[in-house]
Design goal:
35% of the residues lie in helices and 26% in strands. It is α+β, with helices and mostly antiparallel strands. Helix 11 packs antiparallel against helix 12 and helix 12 packs across helix 13. Bound molecules: flavin-adenine dinucleotide. The site of flavin-adenine dinucleotide (FAD) has 29 residues, from strand 3, helix 3, helix 8 and strand 11.
Length: 303
C-alpha cells in the first residue's frame, strides 16, 4: 500500500477497499494511486449504480469516500464580489435552508424538488454536477446563474464555466484524478425561480425543468432548460426577446410577449421521446414552464 493510501484510512466493506481520507491532499493522492477509483459523496447516484451492478464489479475497484474532506464542506458569501462559493459536499437540505435559500432562491426551489428528505439530507451539489444527468435538478439553476465549477487535481486547480463543464449526457470535462471541490454562483439582484414537470409531484425525475433568473442591474433575463437536451441548454433567443419585451420600471410584460417567450424557449429544446415523455410533450412543457416563470418574474400585465 502506497503513501497516499496509508494516509487515507482504508477498510474493506463487502470485499471492496474503501478509503476515507480526511484531507483533500490525501484524497487526491489516493486518486492518483488508484486510477479509476469510484468517488463516493452522498452515494444517492452511486448506490443506484452499485445496485444495478454497473459499478464495483471490476476486480479491485476502490472507493474513495469524500464525505470527511473539510475542504468540500461549507460555503462562503462574498458580498463585495457578489458571489457565493458552495463546497461540493453542500447538501440539498442545506441549500433549502436560510441563509442560502435567500441568496440563491432558485437553487433552494430546485433542491426542494429533489427526491425525499432522506435523499436531500445526504445528496450533494457536487454529486449532481459529476453525474451530469440531463435531468439533474441543480444544473439548470447553475447554468442560468452562470456558475463556475472548481476542480482540483494534484497538478492544481481549474475553474470552468458550468456550460463548459457539462459536455454530454452524463459526460463532463472532469479529468481522471480530479475532484470537484466547489461551485461558485453569482448572487444576482432580481427574481429567480425553478419549475419542473414530472409524472407526479414528489420523488420524481424531471420530464422538463426550467430556471429563470433576472439580474436587474444588467437588465438581463437568463433561462436554462433541463431534461430536454443532452445537457442543460440556455434559451438565448428567448432571453434576448424578454430583455426587450419587459417593462423594467414596472416589472411588467404582456401576455402575448410571455407566450412568445415560451415558444422561443421551446425552440431551444432538443428533446427526445423516451419512456417518461414524448419530445412533443417536453417542448410543450418547456413553453408552459418558461411562460409561467416569466410571468412570476414580471407579475404586472402590459396591455
Ligand atoms: C430516490 C432518489 C431520488 C432522486 N431524485 C432526484 C431528483 O429529484 N433530482 C435530481 O437531480 N437527482 C435526484 N436523484 C439523484 C441524486 O440524488 C443526485 O444526483 C445527487 O445530487 C447526487 O449526489 P451524491 O452526493 O449522492 O452523489 P454520489 O452518488 O455520491 O456521486 C454521484 C457521482 O458523482 C461523483 N462525485 C461525487 N462527488 C464528487 C466530487 N466532489 N468530485 C468528483 N466526483 C464526485 C461520483 O463518483 C459519482 O459518479 C435521486 C436519487 C435517488 C436515489
Amino acid at each position: 500500500m502506497g503513501l497516499g493510501r496509508r494516509r487515507a484510512c482504508a477498510r474493506t466493506i463487502c470485499g471492496v477497499p474503501v478509503l476515507t481520507p480526511t484531507s483533500l491532499d490525501d484524497a487526491l493522492a489516493a486518486l492518483v494511486e488508484t486510477p479509476g477509483a469510484l468517488v463516493l459523496a452522498g452515494g444517492t447516484d452511486v448506490m443506484v449504480e452499485v445496485n444495478e451492478a454497473r459499478r464495483l464489479m471490476v476486480d479491485d475497484e476502490t472507493v474513495v469516500a469524500v464525505g470527511q474532506l473539510a475542504e468540500l464542506h461549507g460555503w462562503v458569501h462574498d458580498p463585495v464580489a457578489g458571489t457565493l462559493r458552495l463546497g461540493a459536499a453542500t447538501t440539498y437540505a442545506e441549500l433549502e435552508q436560510e441563509p442560502l435559500a435567500s441568496l440563491v432562491p432558485a437553487l433552494a426551489q430546485a433542491a426542494r424538488t429533489v427526491g425525499s428528505p432522506q435523499i436531500r439530507n445526504v445528496a450533494t451539489i457536487g454529486g449532481n454536477l459529476a453525474t451530469c444527468s440531463p435531468a439533474g435538478d441543480g444544473l439548470p439553476v447553475l447554468a442560468a446563474l452562470g456558475a463556475t465549477v472548481e476542480l482540483r487535481g494534484t497538478g492544481g486547480t481549474r475553474h470552468l464555466p458550468v456550460a463548459a463543464f457539462m459536455t454530454g449526457v452524463k459526460q463532463t470535462a472532469r479529468q481522471p484524478g480530479e475532484l470537484i471541490t466547489a461551485v461558485t454562483v453569482p448572487v444576482l439582484d432580481g427574481w429567480q425561480g425553478y419549475a419542473k414537470v414530472g409524472v407526479r409531484n414528489a420523488m420524481v425525475i424531471a420530464i422538463a425543468g426550467a430556471c429563470l433568473a433576472v439580474d436587474v442591474p444588467s437588465r438581463s433575463v437568463r433561462l436554462a432548460l433541463g431534461s430536454v437536451a443532452p445537457t442543460v441548454v440556455r434559451a438565448t433567443s428567448a432571453e434576448a426577446f424578454a430583455e426587450g419585451a419587459v417593462e423594467w420600471s414596472t416589472n411588467a410584460v404582456s401576455d402575448a410577449d410571455a407566450t412568445t417567450f415560451g415558444e422561443l424557449a421551446a425552440e431551444a429544446a432538443k428533446p427526445i421521446d423516451d419512456h417518461r415523455a414524448s419530445a412533443a410533450y417536453r417542448r410543450h412543457a418547456v413553453a408552459v414552464l418558461s411562460r409561467r416563470l416569466l410571468r412570476r418574474a414580471f407579475p404586472h400585465r402590459l396591455a
